[in-house]
């Protein structure tokens, strides 16, 4: 293919080239100077050269207006530049002035400029999964912005079960994103969060998600998106978030099957009851500005070419106010890899008619005009797609002239990596750490009793490992070794050269250190060499000889042995759970830039990860009734149907602590319904020896309903059991009487 000379396309082709290499292809590029070769490594180097030359010399300066520059007296008087007009009117005016050739070049993530209308080019692809990231070409670090606050990976933050924390992290990330936009270093469209259901625990990208539970994932999605996009500007957006990857995507490269060829066979029941929930919540509760379709097929149809899920569900049933974007080169993938269409023009037409508005990559810019000329697509279809993307840009203020004069225009480098932001990253890591075992108890450690601590393991002194994938450049790091060293004297031995732990060459030093110390902390687990995008695991055991190192060190340890695990996906450590020499097990996930400090705070008792007792008292009352044999969730009375629970949580320990109150429901339906499902959760702080009352409101239609095999959500009549810890409550939804009765 020919590579256009424009820098933004060089970046796009560089990134798409890398995707093609992942797919095992050898693409051939030809440049106008005649260079070309069939050897893909030469092409990769050539594109990399262009990429570095074009962008390594970027200097930080205030961002000029994207469009509607007040200094441009001609274009600034056009209707689409008048911010006092309704956005739909401005959008229609702008699109009406474009030629077909200009329109198709706006259908891609590296959107071209329209100089005659005073509109600059724009790169849509930026990432902000758990902090501003430079994974996408729309964002870069340097100059006044050497880094940004790197929060814990999503799987860790989700383990806090703290929705207000998730929203606050989103607010901080968007502050830093806007600051970098104002400084000319980032865009305003961030393709985050990833809210896929982490169903297969071997998936390398599970670390990016809130986990396997649909209710938790949905709550996380809405909370983080609200934080990112802002909640105080009406229809205006602080940044535009994107919930991805819709849908049924939890495989990258496993056992000879990759995401470019994967066909997820999913029942109607599972789609509605599992995979739809976080995306529906993201759109309807979070009001997200974008949804991304995935690489895979669902029941034989590529998600980016399926009108039932894009046009009918996301935009129709859920009423998305925003744009739908493809994963990078997804349209090319369903044409070239999945052979879903016979020509690229058919692929372009199918995607746009299905409801796709924007293509990550150049595919639509190359093939859409020909699709129109061949009668496969109408120009009106393109207008609809552009209407959705341009409206988002206008809601972001990109057509309102000078950025510094707009809301958030005062944010700059002073607002990135602030002490408050970095303290929030530390607090998020503390709250996400999970105590899996504490025999004795072995924790907390004491600087007085444990004057020397052996710190052992391949993850004991790591930095970038702690921030996981889709990360940027952190403000700074505190490693586990450094964190523990602030409490007591340390003896450090890695034990393994890396997490692969291929041999026992370094075991001796680790064992000797454990014999000398008053306590031993093993920091083990995984990193991106084991689990990552396009890198799924074959099993759940620790890599290499890690288990042997743990067992031998624990056997030799003079004092208590604490196992700390870093990972995104789950690890089978049943051997450690059953080993009496291992006193405690702590899971830290990928805890972000301050992870080492958070781990140390937990180990030494500065932060209590949860030793609160189970709830001891509970009662509930109802505030509505029903009088029907069965109710479909679409029924008008659903909005008024709820149950309130009041639960007293007591802390029997000697330290203040936080407890996650989890409420599960067991419905009375048949064998096709779940045996137990999470319906509510609350984070509660309880002082030592104290008690706290927690109120939980459960929306009956939303959380006590079940989905039948036809994909219809219903509320089954009869006795529903609510489980809170070891306590079971019964709620009877009765037909033809007054409905909800407590027992």
From TrEMBL:
Is Cytoplasm a UniProt keyword of this protein? Answer: no
Q: Which domain of life is it from?
A: Eukaryota
- Matching InterPro entries: BXL, Fn3-like, GH, Glyco_hydro_3_C, Glyco_hydro_3_C_sf, Glyco_hydro_3_N, Glyco_hydro_3_N_sf, Ig-like_fold
Coiled-coil annotation reads none
One Pfam assignment: Glyco_hydro_3_C
Say if the entry is tagged with keyword Zinc: no
* Transmembrane feature ranges: 42-60
Q: Print the keywords alphabetically.
A: Glycosidase, Hydrolase, Membrane, Signal, Transmembrane, Transmembrane helix
Domain (Fibronectin type III-like): residue spans on this chain: 659-728
| A GO molecular-function annotation | hydrolase activity, acting on glycosyl bonds
Q: Specify the protein name.
A: Beta-D-xylosidase 2
């Amino acid at each position: 293919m020919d590579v256009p000379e424009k820098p933004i396309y060089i970046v796009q082709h560089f990134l798409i080239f890398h995707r093609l290499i992942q797919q095992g292809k050898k693409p051939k590029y030809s440049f106008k100077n005649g260079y070309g070769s069939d050897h893909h490594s030469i092409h990769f180097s050539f594109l990399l050269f262009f990429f570095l030359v074009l962008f390594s010399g970027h200097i930080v300066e205030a961002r000029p207006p994207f469009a509607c520059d007040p200094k441009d007296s001609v274009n600034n008087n056009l209707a689409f530049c008048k911010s006092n007009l309704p956005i739909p009117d401005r959008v229609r005016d702008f699109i009406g002035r474009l030629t077909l050739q200009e329109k198709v070049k706006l259908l891609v993530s590296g959107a071209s400029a329209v100089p005659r209308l005073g509109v600059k080019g724009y790169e849509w692809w930026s990432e902000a999964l758990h902090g501003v990231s430079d994974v996408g070409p729309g964002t870069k670090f340097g100059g006044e912005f050497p880094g940004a606050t790197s929060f814990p990976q999503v799987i860790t933050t989700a383990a806090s079960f703290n929705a207000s924390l998730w929203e606050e992290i989103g607010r901080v990330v968007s502050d830093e994103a806007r600051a970098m936009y104002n400084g000319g270093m980032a865009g305003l469209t961030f393709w985050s969060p990833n809210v896929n259901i982490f169903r297969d625990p071997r998936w390398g990208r599970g670390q990016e998600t809130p986990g396997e539970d649909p209710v938790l994932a949905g709550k996380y999605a809405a909370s983080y998106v609200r934080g990112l996009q802002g909640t105080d500007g009406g229809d205006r957006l602080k940044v535009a978030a994107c919930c991805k990857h819709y849908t049924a995507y939890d495989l990258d490269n496993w056992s000879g099957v990759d995401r470019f060829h994967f066909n997820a066979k999913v029942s109607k029941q599972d789609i509605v009851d599992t995979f739809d929930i976080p995306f529906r919540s993201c759109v309807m509760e979070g009001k997200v500005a974008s949804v991304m379709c995935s690489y895979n097929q669902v029941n034989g149809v590529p998600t980016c070419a399926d009108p039932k899920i894009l046009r009918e569900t996301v935009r129709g049933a859920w009423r998305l106010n925003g744009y739908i974007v493809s994963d990078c080169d997804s349209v090319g993938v369903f044409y070239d890899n999945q052979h879903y269409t016979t020509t690229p023009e058919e692929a372009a037409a199918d995607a746009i008619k299905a409801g796709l508005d924007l293509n990550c990559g150049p595919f639509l810019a190359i093939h859409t005009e020909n699709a129109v000329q061949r009668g496969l697509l109408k120009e009106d279809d393109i207008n609809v797609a552009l209407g959705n993307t341009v409206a988002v840009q206008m809601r972001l203020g990109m057509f309102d002239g000078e950025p510094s004069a707009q809301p958030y225009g005062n944010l700059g480098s002073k607002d990135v990596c602030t002490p408050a932001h970095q303290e929030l990253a530390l607090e998020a890591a503390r709250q996400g750490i999970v105590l899996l075992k504490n025999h004795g108890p072995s924790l907390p450690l004491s600087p007085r009793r444990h004057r020397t601590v052996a710190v052992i393991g391949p993850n004991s002194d790591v930095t970038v490992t702690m921030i996981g994938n889709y990360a940027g450049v952190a403000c700074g790091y505190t490693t586990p070794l450094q964190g523990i060293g602030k409490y007591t004297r340390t003896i450090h031995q890695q034990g393994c050269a890396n997490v692969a732990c291929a041999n026992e060459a370094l075991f001796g030093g680790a064992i000797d250190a454990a014999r000398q110390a008053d306590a031993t902390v093993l920091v083990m687990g995984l990193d991106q060499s084991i689990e990552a995008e396009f890198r799924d695991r074959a099993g759940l055991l620790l890599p290499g000889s890690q288990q042997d190192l743990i067992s031998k060190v624990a056997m030799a340890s003079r004092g208590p042995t604490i196992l700390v695990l870093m990972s995104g996906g789950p690890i089978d450590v049943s051997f450690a759970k059953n080993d009496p020499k291992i006193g405690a097990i702590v899971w830290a996930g990928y805890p972000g830039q301050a992870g080492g400090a958070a781990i140390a705070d937990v180990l030494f008792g500065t932060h209590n990860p949860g030793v609160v007792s189970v709830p001891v008292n509970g009662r509930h009352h109802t505030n509505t009734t029903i009088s029907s044999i069965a109710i479909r969730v679409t029924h008008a009375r659903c909005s008024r149907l709820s149950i309130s629970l009041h639960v007293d949580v007591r802390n029997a320990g000697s330290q203040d602590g936080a407890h996650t109150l989890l409420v599960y429901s067991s419905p009375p339906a048949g064998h096709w319904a779940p045996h137990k499902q999470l319906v509510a959760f609350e984070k509660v702080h309880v002082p030592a020896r104290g008690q706290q009352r927690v109120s939980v409101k459960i929306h009956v239609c939303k959380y006590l309903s079940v989905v039948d095999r036809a994909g219809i959500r219903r509320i089954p009549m009869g006795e529903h059991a609510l489980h809170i810890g070891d306590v079971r409550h019964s709620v009877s939804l009765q037909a033809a009487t007054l409905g909800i009765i407590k027992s």
